[in-house]
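Just curious. Protein, please.
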Amino acid sequence: MRISASVYAFGDISLEETVKRLDSFGVDYLHVDCNDDPNVFDDVARIRAVSSTPIDLHLVTDRPEAYFDGVRAHGVELCAFQHENVGRSVEVPADLGARMGLSVLPHTNLDVFAPYADRFSFIMVMTTTPGRSGGRFDDMAFTQIRKARQRFPAKAIHVDGGVDDEVSYILRNLDVQLAVSGSYIRKQPTVGSALLTLKANFRDHGHLVRDFMAWPSELPILREGEASLRSVLTAIERSRTGYCLLVDDDQRLAGVVTDGDIRRAMLRALSSGGTFGEHTFALDELVNRSPTTVAPQDTVADMLALLDAAPRAFTFLPVTDADRRVRGAVSFNHLLRSAA
């Protein structure tokens, strides 16, 4: 996941010194907030004078069209405007040169992105008050991120506001491509230590599994009594998760079937001279009846402790309550890609 460092979060030093300090530790983008102030391009010019790091411009204004000439003239690489401030569809010239995005709040209906879907590169989920530094992350943003990923799978997702080390871990897990951080970086002993924790490690701040897990409606879940090998394979293929959850009539987790379970069954069939026809395997022999699970109220630290103690690596964990009813799942298959 890329980190875009907010240049206005360091009020005690000059803009030029801030940019040089951020650049010395290799930040990916320099984030510039514009609260309806055309003079923002004077600051962009000052940044360009000391840095070649790409600029990530966030326009918080009801008239983004007034800024497009500046975006074009200064070669801004990323530019998003805040939907809630505009409240209408905006005509965006094709020659701006910037990768464009739409910034939305966690409760905004994602229908607003549809008019831009053919041309815009990313959706930015704004989790605190747009244009202000130091706000607390809104956990509803996790739901908005998952909705955006489902509805617009080809678009990058950026997140701005309240991103600390633990939130960054969750965002990487949700396949977010870029996170904006300002006050968190400023408060750490060094910029380097802040970037390390944002991209790799984290300390426990108490976020719970239920805050960011995928909900049952988003998962490949089949009733065990109605499932067949074909329906399980179809569910895995459609969901692209690599697994299928089987439940009983009370939605209790009865077992899990993964790509790996099916692959191992095929290898057993080959070793015994069998074939790959649908009736070669009984579904029951593919099901893991005792999968490792986490609870909705577990913290991220609890979950990682469980993973560290496990004898093998996991690509996902079902989330179940005390009665073993399925409440969701957490997938880890985006972590390696987001670290790139």
Q: What stands out?
A: The first strand starts at residue 2 and ends at 6.
